[in-house]
Amino acid sequence: MVTAGKKALKAGAVSADCAPTVLHDAGARTEILNRLRRAEGQLRGIQRMVEEGEDCLKIGQQFAAVRKALDSTYLRMTVCFMAQELEQKLAPDDAQKAGLATMLKDMETLLARMG
Question: What are phi and psi of 64, to 5 degrees?
Fold first, then answer.
């Protein structure tokens, strides 16, 4: 039997436990925005290359570079979000925060190697 809550979740509603959030750390937001601006510049470069009839292999290399930049930006945003949420939910002391930061940095490094 499907309850009203499950119907709401299936319809795209967000439960109170999973309410959407934003990055509160201004430094993290700035870092993400700077990465996105660099990727935007790379995309403009690709557009110029296509307009000027550049070699497809060179254009393909630039596509790969943009994809990598966006993937690493997504990973960085995800790790920043995780750090923020874990800190908020767990309220760690200073020693635990240091351990958490180290663990998240290691996790980011490991995940980056997957791509």
Answer: -60, -40
